[in-house]
Write a structure and sequence with these properties.
ABC transporter involved in vitamin B12 uptake, BtuC; mainly alpha; disordered C terminus
Length: about 290
């Protein structure tokens, strides 16, 4: 314990915790919509093509983080433009992802130096972020959350019933592209913790676990953020104690939370609601008979 307290005094640890907090909040909020809109495959594609963007920027001697953002943003627009409907979206995602991965391999092959930065993006480097990185992540996170808040109501409507929303004049197609861009920013942030190969952990698992706990969208977002915070901050602290990679603990804690929500807490909450409804109904009937 004393060792952990001493480590908390180091700047790189403080930067990691600050970055992890920002990433957890953004990932938790976005994760709820990713699960509700069945866009898990799109998250995977954004992560892998973000790596392609990073590799391309390294080839051009530019920042891989900016390349990561550029790669995810371009992919989001492309997927949104070609496959808005859920029925055809997976096919478009698969086609775009295959092409993008081929480009990524080409960029790495053409680069004559050691692409350590690109390979670090594959596995995450949360303990290596600087104070400037934290400020950048905070700026991206604020823009992401403000953008999501601006489209929250129509996006929720389009998520629950897209056909009715479109009939009511809601721009379902434009919302799909906008949310893909929001996803792109969230993916670019989450990669800093778990890397491209494990991106599904933060952008899917918290929302999936929250969905098992409550059907209410607002409350589900709160649960999702809480789960993401627990997994990321817990993973960072456990990594500092054991010197094991952060991604190992983040993925393990996320998986544990999902199992707990799916098979333990969720069923109990449903049983409690199921038993309380007959009691409320009988109480209402008794009052009606008394009158």
């Amino acid at each position: 314990m004393d060792q952990l307290v001493a480590l908390l005094g180091y700047e790189f640890v403080q930067n990691a915790i600050a970055a992890g907090t920002v990433i957890a909040i953004v990932s938790g909020v976005v994760s709820r919509f990713v699960v509700a809109r069945n866009m898990s495959f799109a998250v995977h594609a954004l992560g892998e093509l973000g790596f392609t963007g990073a590799a391309g920027f390294i080839l051009l001697r530019l920042s891989p983080v900016l390349g990561l953002l550029a790669g995810t943003a371009v992919t989001a627009v492309f997927i949104g433009a070609l496959g808005v409907r859920a029925r055809g979206r997976d096919v478009v995602v698969g086609v775009v992802m295959a092409f993008g991965l081929g480009l990524g391999v080409l960029f790495i092959t053409l680069y004559k130096g050691y692409a350590n930065q690109a390979f670090a993006i594959l596995f995450g480097t949360i303990t290596g972020v600087s104070r400037a990185d934290v400020v950048l992540l905070l700026a991206i996170g604020l823009v992401t959350l403000v953008s999501l808040a601006a489209i929250y109501r129509p996006l929720t409507f389009a998520t629950v019933d897209p056909e009715v929303a479109e009939a009511r004049g809601v721009p379902v197609g434009a919302l799909a592209v906008a949310f893909l861009l929001i996803m792109a920013a969230a993916v670019a942030e989450a990669i800093q913790v778990v890397g491209v190969l494990l991106i599904l952990t933060l952008l899917i698992t918290p929302g999936a676990a929250a969905e098992c706990l409550t059907p209410r969208p607002g409350l589900a977002i709160i649960y999702s953020v809480a789960i993401a915070l627990f997994c990321i901050l817990g993973g960072i602290l456990l990594s500092l104690i054991t010197n094991a990679p952060v991604s190992v603990f983040v993925t393990s804690l996320s998986f544990g939370c999902y199992l707990l929500a799916r098979f333990v807490v969720g069923p109990r909450r449903r049983d409690i609601r199921a038993t309380s409804r007959p009691a409320e109904s009988s109480a209402g009937t008794t009052v009606a008979e008394a009158h």
